[in-house]
Amino acid sequence: MDATALSAWIREFADLVARNRDELTALDSAIGDGDHGVNMDRGLTAVVAALDAEPPDTPSALFKKVGMTLISKVGGASGPLYGTAFLRMSAAADSVLDGPGFAKVLRSGLDGVVARGKASPGDKTMVDALTPAVEALETAFAGGADVTAAFQAAADAADQGREATVPLVARKGRASYLGERSAGHADPGATSVTLLMRAAASTLGAAG
Amino acid sequence: MTVGLVVAGHSRPLARAAAALASEMTPGRPVPIEVAAGLDEETFGTDAVAISEAITAADDGDGVVVLMDLGSAVLSAETALELLDEPLRERVLLCPAPLVEGLVAAAVTAGAGGTREEVAAEALAGLAGKEAHFGTAGEEPSRTGEGVSAVVRVVNEHGLHARPAARLVGELRRFDALVELRNENTGSGWVPASSLTRVATLGALRGHELAVRASGRQAQEAVDRFVELAGDAFGETQDHVNHSRPEPTLHRGSPTGNYPADGGSLPKPCGQPENVDNPPTPGRSASTLRAAPSSPGIAIGPAVRLSQPALHIPDEPSMGSEAEQHRLTDALTTARHEIGKLSGDIFEAHLMLLEDADLLDEARAAIDKGTTAPEAWRDTTNRVAAEFDALPDPYLRARADDVRAVSDQVLRALLGVPAATVDGEGILMATDLTPAQAAALDPVRIAGVVLRNGSPTSHAAILLRTRGIPAVIGDIPEGALIALDGSTGDVAVDPAPDVLEDFRSRAERHKKLSDEARTKAAQPAMTRNGVTIHVGANIGSVAEARAAADNGADLAGLVRTEFLFLDRDTAPDADEQEAVYLAIADALGGRRITLRTLDAGSDKPLRYLPAPSEANPFLGVRGIRHSLVHRSMFTEQLRAIVRVARRTPVSVMFPMVTTPDEVVEARRMLDEVGDLPPDLRVGMMVEVPAAALRAADFTPYVDFFSIGTNDLTQYTLAAERGNADLLDLTSGLDPAVEQLIEGVCRAAGPQKTVAVCGELAGDGTVVPRLLAAGVRELSVAPALVPVTKQAVRAT
Q1: Residue B39: helix, strand or coil by DSSP?
Q2: Looking at the domain assignment, is residue B139 inside a domain?
Q3: Among B134, B156, B173, where does a domain finish?
Q4: Which residues form the PTS EIIA type-4 domain (chain B) (predicted)?
Q5: Within this chain, do residues B156 and B130 fall inside the same structural domain, yes or no?
Q6: Chain A closest CA to B337's CA: distance in Å?
Q7: Average pLDDT, integer, range B535-541
Q8: Which residue of A197, B490, B624, B648 has the fewest CB atoms within a 10 Å radius of its CB?
Q9: How far apart are the first and last CA of chain A?
């Protein structure tokens, strides 16, 4: 996976977020301040524009550009969270990534999110989808799976993680002000993570 | 040394204003305050890059303290640190102080040359002034240590008014817990949830947040129940919250007009009467006044007034606290008995007032101190009524009237003073009526009512409509003879002969039509070309079944069995259901009753089957969908229906059917009950357009179709019938709905009956079109049966 393949992933993520913007916003309206879809779409539109203006030539440069753009343009908590993830991924990335290398990079991103948001699994946050996704990716590659199967497993794991947030009571972020009322809705951050992993399955996974 | 400050937040104007406020504190020694807030002037959001740039700009070499608002500001500020170069990053402190207080304290300290640690410490202590002022330093404001708590939002249209408050108090009293509430929006004090009067003084309006806290053995259960109740609008039916799934009739008890029986929106607002001399309106005489129409019908008669014996409390000493406590107890019992005889939601709230612990405790304590029972009761209720009077919301303020009405009722019992009476027969002119007075009027003696105050949505007005007494509301001058038209709001005081003649002829027309309808009510309705159409009644109680029989209903075309299931803690078993269904059949003299199986769902929730909240309950798990999920309850109902069917003619029908599978499954469950009498007819309601379009697929499985036009109309036109702005779409028979009905009749063929139960079936102009389509049975509100039969005869 080189910068071009990874750019395709990010562009697909941007496209999925744009198409699911209203759903993300609706989820966030139920339990937060209702801006997740709008914020992520604004940030990723800016990301795509930045990639168009000056295509990065290494994975590290790509992730840095994505991260910096997101922390500046998203506006909500997902800005510093996604932004930190991509900045950490930038720091961890080699010039060309193979499957296990990508898993390692994504693990760094997850660590960044956890460090920034101080959220644990079960807090009803994006961590609940990203953690199982990273673990599925690692397990798949450790078991010798090809990238198609591995990314599909990661996307499925993210989906399941997201579903598991539905009954949870939020303990972090704006939704935590709602207490028990936050139960019954999927977490919007976990939902956008599933889009990120679906984008990976359909681009990076297809490349294999 | 000057430490720089950075405000990181979501809103640029807010951050700038906070910075300006803080700068005022250091006029002599400007402190660098940089703002990094918002994505632009208007867009809320935080930007880590902008924060890192602001930090760089604010640093003079002595370091920077960053204050943040909330949420992503904190995360973005932390992220910003990562973007800074090493030496600067070491000089930055992120300070969790409250933004405004912290910034002011920080600016003062920075201006005085403090270090960044001192600046941050002073900022953190910025709340001290406020805490000292309120004496809350060191404790959690408004939270008890060991208690359980929660916060809910009030969703009721009119806030937490009498009915929902009564429900809340009634429910929470059942728990072994001390439960208290406060209004977070008004910063009210904590009040006991066991006291209706205190709960109402919270002034909780729609959108307000109510905090609840509880202690005691069942504290958790009480708080859970409270949260659940709040989510359910405290049991207020959707009708009251203005998003109704309309009942199949709105015309209950008002034979001619277009008035909702539950006091929903009315066509014309209540207003001052206007003299319409200029310009003259056709058909209305120059001396006619205009009031707000409130209850339809025409009434002419001498003005009579309410004679209200004064409640004079004699100045006499207490007979001793024990005797006085007894007097009060007896009077409360009497009042409770009187109120208990009246039917209506409002009287539930009145009964609750009589059991209000807070109010009773206060009155009883006064008696113990040597006050007489009447004085103690009057003083306490006056105090409570005054609390309501002081509330800002007019709806809640009007609850003072409820308190006064109940107070007077008890005082009358205490003093042995009879209730208000009407001196004579004719048109009652009154300032306003208490609900109890409205409920007690004798329609034989009182032809109509003019209320000077009040509104068409008041309890009194609703009760008058329900009871079929014509009424208007307006500041009508005194007079000897009054003529009024409660459908138009026209009123004539001491009318000139020609005006009186006009009202008389209106009344005659009206009377002729309804008399003719009434005299023929019991006869079968046959069209001019000899087709007999069964006209039945839609009923929801044994009392309505009696009304249906009185009005000549040929059958009960729809028995809404929900009334047996709602507002109770457990589902009725087959025995109880059987008894009630038999009582309905008896009241109808053994005519066929069409029992609709339970039409529940999250729009009509059952207390014992908590429903998941659905984004759109009208499109959710309702009707047969609900029954097929709650199968044991469904089987129990089918068992009761089969037992009744062995003794009296019964049809059973399933509501909200969408696919043939549902009918097949429901019939299978019916068969499992066993031993079905051959006379039991099984049908389905057609309310879902999909079912209408596929009617032919259902015909093998049903004996009849019953078209619920209210729901079929709203689902076909995607227009909610409770929405006053959509009346053009939802009133009358839309051509699209007409086509669906025609299709069902075609599919049904001559073997299967097609009935229409719904408001449309009572519309004289629509009846010919329904019959032309092939409908052979109509079912309407009991009071509309006679006029519907007339409409059939004219077809």
Answers
A1: coil
A2: no
A3: B134
A4: 2-133
A5: no
A6: 41
A7: 90
A8: B648
A9: 9
Strands B532-539 and B556-560: parallel
Q: List the single best residue of B49, B75, B78, B232 to mutate versus A (max A Cβ within 10 A).
A: B75
CATH of the domain at B194: 3.30.1340.10
DSSP B716-733: HHT--TT-GGGHHHHSS-
Q: How far is it, in rounded angstroms, from Cα A99 to Cα A138? A: 9
Does B459 qualify as catalytic in the annotation? yes
Q: What is the number of other CB atoms lying within 10 angstroms of the CB of residue B178? A: 16
Q: Which domain holds residue B476?
A: 289-302+423-515
Residue B177 confidence class, pLDDT cut points 50, 70, 90: confident
A67 touches chain B (CB under 8 A): no
> Is the separation of the CB atoms in A170 and A182 below 8 Å?
yes
Q: What is the pLDDT of residues B250-293, one digit of tens each?
A: 222 333 333 333 333 333 333 333 333 333 333 444 468 888 77
The predicted-structure confidence for B25-83, as pLDDT tens digits, reads as follows 777 677 889 999 998 888 889 999 999 999 999 998 889 999 998 878 988 999 999 88
Residue B673 lies in a domain: yes
Please check whether residue B45 touches A, CB under 8 A: yes
Alpha helices in B183-312 (DSSP H): 196-200, 219-231
Q: Which helix (H) or strand (E) holds B404?
A: helix B399-415
**Is there a contact between A184 and B612 if contact means CB atoms under 8 Å apart?**
yes
DSSP string, chain A: --HHHHHHHHHHHHHHHHHTHHHHHHHHHHHS-S-HHHHHHHHHHHHHHHHHHS--SSHHHHHHHHHHHHHHH-BSTHHHHHHHHHHHHHHH--SS--HHHHHHHHHHHHHHHHHHH---TTSSSTHHHHHHHHHHHHHHHHTT--HHHHHHHHHHHHHHHHHHTTTPPP-SSGGGGGGGGGTTS--HHHHHHHHHHHHHHHHHHHH-
Query: Among B452, B486, B515, which residue terminates a domain?
Result: B515
B76, B184, B213: which to substitute to probe chain A, counting the most A Cβ within 10 Å? B76
CA distances from B269 to B130, B454, B468 (A): 48, 12, 20
Which pLDDT score is estimated for B145?
41
Model pTM greater than 0.80?
no
> By the CB < 8 Å criterion, does B43 face chain A?
yes
Closest CA to B738 of B774, B704, B784, B789: B774
Q: Is B728 on the interface with A (CB under 8 A)?
A: no
Q: Touching check for B334 and chain A: CB below 8 Å?
A: no
**Cα B479 to Cα B329: distance, rounded to the nearest angstrom:** 43
Q: What is the mean pLDDT of residues A14-27?
A: 91
Torsion, Cα B264 B267 B269 B272, to 10 degrees, reads -130
